[in-house]
Amino acid sequence: MIFPLKKQIISINNTENGFLNSYDNHAEIPLLPHPGAFAKVRKNHCHEGVDLYCNDGDEVYSMLEGKVLAIIKFTGEHAGSEWWNNTWSVLVEHKDFVINYGEIIPSNNLYEGMLVTEGFCLGKVTTVLKKDKGRPRNMLHLEMYELGTKQHLNSWDLNMQKPQNLLDPTSLLLKYLTN
Fold this sequence. Notes:
Elements: E1 9-13, E2 26-30, E3 45-46, E4 50-53, E5 59-61, E6 66-75, E7 87-93, E8 97-106, E9 115-116, E10 121-125, E11 139-146, E12 156-157, E13 166-167, H1 170-174
Parallel strand pairs: 1-2
Antiparallel strand pairs: 3-12, 4-11, 5-10, 6-7, 6-9, 7-8, 8-10, 8-11, 11-13
């Protein structure tokens, strides 16, 4: 299993508003109360995944071998959220779970039904936030689901229980700290 971004240093960030000055060789796994953490309560929803802040153009890699289930318009005008830039996500079924690699531009050679190897380049991160909110505007958004899931959630609404098939990818990402 590989980390989905090529970074030399991987650490934890559990601060409310702490961000790095550079994401060139460094990735942080956000833990609550960090705004990129899984289940962080936001203005209109609970965060459905984990945001790994990085640079525009950073390549995104399949963490394990798997099958591409869908390539989805994820944010922006083409997805009904005009306050963000247009991005896509790639839903990949791995052996034990499904990962949604979001807020990217998919690789040109990627297609639904394609079998990908561990480390296959799924695409590149692109700037998702249109406006500077005092935090990084580029991130890989990772969502994790139970095996058998065929599409990502549109939203985990406030005051609602976590959707049954939605899993917290944090523990999977934390494995990279012990390797």
